[in-house]
Design brief:
- The structure is a homotetramer of 207-residue chains.
- In chain A, helix 1 crosses helix 3, helix 1 packs across helix 5 and helix 4 (82-98) runs antiparallel to helix 6 (121-145).
- The first copy, chain A, starts with 8 loop residues before the first helix and ends in an 11-residue tail after the last helix.
- The first copy, chain A, is mainly α.
- Helices cover 67% and strands 0% of the residues of chain A.
- The first copy, chain A, is elongated, with a radius of gyration of 19 Å.
- The first copy, chain A, has a domain at 60-194: Tetracycline Repressor, domain 2.
- The first copy, chain A, contains eight helices and no strands.
- Chains in contact: A-B, C-D.
- Chains A and B meet through helix 1, helix 5, helix 6, helix 7 and helix 8 of A and helix 1, helix 5, helix 6, helix 7 and helix 8 of B.
- Chain C binds a DNA duplex (21 and 21 nucleotides) through loops.
Chain lengths: 207, 207, 207, 207
DNA sequence: CATGAATGAGGGTTCATTCAT
DNA sequence: GATGAATGAACCCTCATTCAT
């Protein structure tokens, strides 16, 4: 008599994705072998085929899962002031980078790094684009609010904010957190925001 | 009668590194297997062991080779005006990204993306750091020249210029060149430079 | 329709060990490659990894298996009279040596001879020691029975009996059975036993 | 101008054999690869082919070399009293076993252990036989001298003395020197000798 | 829904051997 | 007589995948 009840199909699938994400964070896409993932889940690897037709499909679903979580983060950082919202998004990213036990930012770049033969980059780029579009929407909202200068190109701003996050991630990935510090990262973000924010909300630039 | 003459040790080593770099550019670090590299060179894979004691040593030598080439690029972009020098470095990088047949920028990021189990990230980060230091030196030169505001933090500026390059590279890697265009990349660079450059040389910011 | 039914885990494991033992007997430890063993079993070599985590673990399990069998032989030779028991053990060994189709004695020495880089000698020595201890126990039993002189050093006797077996094995291994005959082997054993046995049971020494 | 003169063919050959013997002692027959041997000699491995047509021929020559050295040891232990001579031979062997830096006894057994596919055992057995014959000759000399009982079978005695040495060697090989001590080894030898020696020269047996 | 057994392709590495120089 | 470059076969090991149960 098993006290631990059989998981439903959906629950199992979610569990697998969570474990897979952790595995990618710790061992990279390459290290996310079926054996490793299944071991984390506590099942045998052929059982994974009951949920995903192939490893690649699992990884694609994982990208979905990952971007869902990131988008939740972006949504959670919402503030009525668009500039503050962007700042919140940037800080959320920076905070995650500093917390390597988190399984969200690091796997993000692990996917960027996923070898070309995994055929994942295209899919990944498309999601990334959607993320940037979301940021651009925030910029546009700021322009409607009047907190962001109307002349600014929303996409350009969005990409730059996004790029700040990338820089953080890459630096962390390469063990350069001691040099590209959270402080410098924040200063770069403020710089970008400050140069387009109107009024008193914009911190002065000091480089 | 073989028309292809026997290569000398140094020639062969150089050839292997060139081929390996192309292979990394096309198939990633993971795809740079001994079989693939040897096939590109036109020899059998055990022959590689006559030149490198192991695959990892080959990859480490490749990182050396790669950074040598990048540093040459940076040096080649030299201009007496430090701001112009930084701009040249940024543009050189952007130009390379647009020319995917070049085997220099893409492999760069392939290494960033190299799976953790390859154990290359540490080594790579150290080289990266040296590169940033080089950029910071240019900034300091600009400060001595008076073309860069004295108040600026050279390391901060250096990292930001470097980060511009990263953004270009990653975007290209993910097939987003259509969105993160050369124009936007240039604008971001000008932004960074403009905000620290003194005098008329600094383009006005318009985002 | 496969007529050969799928084997259970335990059956397969046992079969692999049996085949491996034969392989060691015929081709030595070095010749006991995964390919060779798997071929004998009738499977492909990666399948072996489902049963043993590595070749070395397989070989260690094989040593277990081998000593189990030898200890069974020693136990099977039991006689109440300790001297007779020792004689039985010695004769059992000699008999095996003469029957090369047996896969027990020969592999024994193959392990002794296993190249140092296999790292098996230590483990093997420990088992060997246990075997000698078992013989020493028989000697002590004889001393309690009064069939073996009390003054004798049990360990010394045990080692000497064991050494008789070694001599047989090595001679067989080197194809010298024509010179170190079963008769001479028996005479050496009697010599050892005779010199410590009390009473009429001890055959006269004639060399 | 090389101050170290070119070695003559014979000198080089001897040097190679000496180095090869050390290599076998330290790393076994399997570890005696052409690369390892050549490295010890200070030349490159293809150069070995100038002296031996193949690795196997080198190993066969090495067996010659090894037995020559052992026979020298036996000769050096010569004493007019045959029993003393045999005792000297046994002690010489035991002494060597205790001195692992010596490259004579250990390689001996490394060859016994040489995997069957090396095809060396036959050759090795023949040499071994010659060695035993030499011991038997000493026994016969003792019988003529009257120091060994006439009734003894010279071959039997010779094999037993030889077997004592084997036991020492194997025990050392398996790291059991702590249990099969030099003292026990000596006692076993005295036992054998004592049981065939006549007169006062024979130590009393005490087991 | 899950498992256990097995596979085939591929990975890095080592080694005896050949041959032009 | 010796070298440097290269080869081909073999080794151990890993992994995604299949399939009967």
């Amino acid at each position: 008599m098993q006290t631990r009840r059989r998981l439903s199909r959906e629950e199992r699938r979610g569990q697998i994705l969570r474990v897979a994400l952790e595995t990618v964070a710790k061992q990279g896409v390459r290290g996310a072998t079926l054996t490793n993932i299944a071991a984390g889940v506590g099942i045998t690897y052929p059982a994974l085929y009951a949920h995903f037709p192939s490893r690649k499909d699992l990884l694609l679903a994982l990208i979905d899962h990952l971007f869902d979580r990131i988008q939740q983060l972006h949504a959670a950082a919402y503030q009525e002031d668009a500039v503050a919202h962007l700042r919140g998004i940037g800080r959320a990213n920076a905070a995650l980078v500093g917390a390597p036990e988190d399984d969200c930012v690091l796997p993000f770049f692990e996917f960027v790094a996923a070898e070309p033969d995994e055929d994942l980059r295209g899919e990944f780029g498309a999601r990334q684009l959607a993320l940037v579009e979301g940021l651009a929407d925030v910029v546009r909202r700021g322009q409607r609010q009047g907190t962001i200068v109307a002349i600014a190109d929303p996409e350009q701003i969005a990409w730059m904010v996004h790029g700040c996050g990338w820089t953080d991630d890459i630096a962390a990935l390469m063990g350069l957190s001691g040099h590209w510090t959270a402080e410098r990262s924040a200063r770069m973000l403020e710089w970008v925001l400050g140069s387009v924010a109107t009024g008193a909300g914009a911190p002065a630039q000091e480089a």
